[in-house]
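Re: Re: ligand-bound prediction request (bumping)

Still looking for help on this. To restate: I need the protein modeled with adenosine-5'-triphosphate bound, output as structure tokens. Inputs repeated here so nobody has to scroll up.
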Amino acid sequence: MSTFKAPRGTYDLIPPVSATYLAVREAISAPLRRSGYGYVETPGFENVELFARGVGESTDIVTKEMYTLTTKGGDQLALRPEGTASVLRAALEANLHKAGSLPVKLWYSGSYYRYERPQKGRYRHFSQVGAEAIGAEDPALDAELILLAHDAYRSLGLRDFRILLNSLGDAECRPVYRAALQEFLRGLDLDEDTRRRIEINPLRVLDDKRDAVQKQLTGAPLLRDYLCDGCRAYHAEVRELISAQGVTFEDDPKLVRGLDYYTRTTFEFVHDGLGSQSAVGGGGRYDGLSEMIGGPALPSVGWALGVDRTVLALEAEGVTLDLPDATSVFVVPLGEEARKVLFGVVAELRTAGIATDFAYGGKGLKAAMKAANRSGARYAIVAGERDFAEGVVQLKDMESGEQTPVPLDKVVPTLRTKLN
Ligand code: ATP
Ligand code: MG
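Reply:
Sorry for the wait, this slipped through. Here it is.
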């Protein structure tokens, strides 16, 4: 063991579990790739101001969770705590919103960093796949994103997840609600931090996870009773479009998200097997964000799904993904001459697109066959001087144990046929 360990709140992805992570990223992005979303990749760090303005000065993410640093050149940067602000920044910088038709639809996958108290499902380095549809106000777009996330989870075989849905109103109705909520909250018995929050961002008090706070919130005014006609109609249509696809959701009138930029449609995917870190993904509409970071008005909607928690959800449901074996053919040379000849066969098989591995390190037959077994290969090729004298190699079916000689120059076509 080395003297070093992965930093607190982080963990390494190593085989075989790492294959599940890759498959989850793939499964979440597949529905997006089939729906007109283009891949975007932004830097792992940004100017700290982008998040301060984009995510919100009063959010936990910005006040407590952000990894900030000053570069040798004096720039104030932050490791990205989330993806939306960066993706929108990139789209604006490249003028994507002027280049083609709207919405600009983008998806991303990467690492995010938050200085949180580490626990199961909550890490300081974690992984998200996200999607953003920038520059269109259309209930069908909100519905599309919710349905695509739903498809992604279903394609992984998950069943015990629920969709929570709410509307956060807009610039017209939210201020009226905000004032009513503030008045209600000021009358409660709350600690100093929370009292301060009432003045800066009262909606987030609704999201307080503590029982003592939640108990006092019964009877709090709810946004749905304050929605303006526009927001009400918009929300009704989103609900209708989702329902029409046979996808069920739960109205959660207290659902707010930890980021300041959300307006109207807000949703969260929760999984019931995850204990207190139950949110596997979340998102919503952020009509004001572009202007908050200096861009034009670009009503947008998006989501981010947590890869780590999705993997935990799979474990909780006992779902194992049907992953193809990494290696199809394992090649075992018997002796020095065979090593050289078969190394060439390995290269040929790989060129032919057949996943092949080799017994390295001069192993004896027994150890080499053990390695072949571990590799999950469907076939092994074993050959030594005696076989070459006859111009053949031995092809072993790892399932039946059956062994047949195959002419050296027929190895590739034979395996190609057998593996199909
Ligand atoms: P939570 O309420 O659990 O803190 P959040 O609202 O901060 O979640 P988002 O910012 O919406 O989460 O991120 C979307 C998803 O990313 C979450 O649903 C979760 O699956 C994942 N996620 C967020 N923070 C972490 C973390 N620290 N560790 C692992 N996954 C995370
Ligand atoms: Mg959080």
